[in-house]
Design brief:
mainly alpha; 5 helices
Length: 137
């Protein structure tokens, strides 16, 4: 092999610099993959929280049908179920995405269970804020 060919292959870097940049690139790839995994788990938790919140809201709405102005919630009852079903579907899709990125079943199960355990708006806002800070790009 010619010395000029080696310089072209190393792109003007020393051999030490070449291996150091390779190591840093590998670290960045691992960091990026971990961030994507964390984002998928956070999104799974948020989707589960929305599903649980809408399901509990639907149950409460069935117990208290009349509105303050005398109208009933009969027209909205179906919509609550649709939103709860859509959120459950999103939870499933996000959980599968997290598993495809390498999350263990226990991690996914923990994210879903902690999402379903959310019962007040403050916790919902905290999970939403956590999910929104997961910048992957």
């Amino acid at each position: 092999m010619n010395v000029n060919d080696m310089k072209g292959w190393l792109k003007g870097k020393s051999l030490y610099g070449f291996f150091r940049s390779f190591k840093e690139k590998k670290k960045d790839e691992i960091r990026f993959h971990t961030a994507k995994l964390h984002a998928a788990l956070s999104l799974t938790q948020l989707a589960a929280a929305i599903a649980g919140f809408t399901t509990s809201t639907t149950t409460e709405a069935q117990n208290t049908n009349p509105k303050s102005n005398g109208e009933t919630r009969a027209g909205y009852k179906g919509m609550d179920s649709i939103v709860a079903s859509a959120a459950a579907l999103m939870t499933t899709v996000c959980a599968e995405a997290a598993e495809s990125l390498g999350a263990d079943r226990t991690q996914v199960e923990s994210a879903v269970n902690s999402g379903l355990a959310i019962i007040n708006p403050i916790d919902m806002m905290a999970v939403t804020a956590t999910t929104s800070t997961c910048n992957v790009l």
